[in-house]
Amino acid sequence: MTSTETSVDDVQAVILVGGKGTRLRPLTLSAPKPMLPTAGLPFLTHLLSRISAAGITRIVLGTSFQSHVFEQHFGDGSKMGLSITYVHESEPLGTGGGIRNVLPELTAETVLVFNGDVLCGTDVRSIIDTHQTSGAEVTLHLVRVTDPRAFGCVPTDSDGRVTAFLEKTQDPPTDQINAGCYVFNRSVIESIPEGRPVSVEREVFPGLLAEGRHVHGHVDSGYWRDMGTPEDFVRGSADLVRGIAPSPALQGHRGEFLVHDGASVGPGALLIGGTVVGRGAEIGAGARLDGAVIFDGAVVEAGAVIERTIVGFGARIGPRALIRDGVIGDGADIGARCELLRGARVWPGVKLPDGGIRFSTDV
Ligand code: GTP
Question: Looking at ligand 1, which residue's alpha carbon is closest to its atom 30?
Fold first, then answer.
């Protein structure tokens, strides 16, 4: 079967969005990670548009933390031409438990599962094609990366069958890592234990391999980024703005910056490096934004410099402040000439007085 013949009629998609997103705090105190604006749109919108582009319309969201936010925003999905249903876990059941928990909503025989925080360019149909062609019970999307040490590694044999599912190691035997997207035959989901936390990575996949079941790898080297840390979130957003990471939701936008409706940019302000300015945000004269992610309603005053930093909803950055590699929580107020460098995180609503924090003695 070639990819043009790939059948998605009997395919449903499940997206796991129940994580707490601790690595992205404090932004994830007020919004779940998959709802954070990325290139100005909730991250999940990019993933949903990618699934929709593959012709898959039936989608189940496995929620736990802040579940109401998803339903409020996406409703039944009809505005995007999708049919979205929601299954809530009152206690987080982990990745495997989350998949098992949505079983009552699954009517298709083939189920495509996504982690809700991965930015990826791979054609969804090609992964399903590999699954249908190989006859496997489960197919894992595996991506080749230059430094696999920070990820779970998944070696495959010459036929493409998965031979092991390894935890992070300093000496990885392969550059193929788990990309956080899987195709399951429905019967495998039925066999996941019910009603208790289960990890798909630590329990389900190793268990299937130990039983000698057919788990296949779909390997490629396309664009891939786990958006779980501030550094990756900033890079991923900039890659979307610049068109390096594809997203059907951005309708071919490609440029050094993206300014959303209702935002204003003062004279002489410089926006580069994939900077995004959210709705209603204000950028003052002469400000310099390089790889900045400015959420809706934030204010950056004149002459401020913001590099590789996320500025939360309604936050204010005072005149001539310098923020580099930072995370500024919603509604925080950073005084004039403050300097925040190297991973500084400011909690929501915190107010720093003018010149209150400096890394230099410049006036
Ligand atoms: P960190 O706390 O920063 O590690 O983030 P996280 O909680 O999102 O965990 P992780 O990045 O490992 O999760 C991968 C994906 O699985 C994300 O899309 C999560 O939303 C989702 N996820 C993690 N745990 C659960 C869970 O217990 N239930 C459900 N439904 N989804 C989960």
Answer: 18
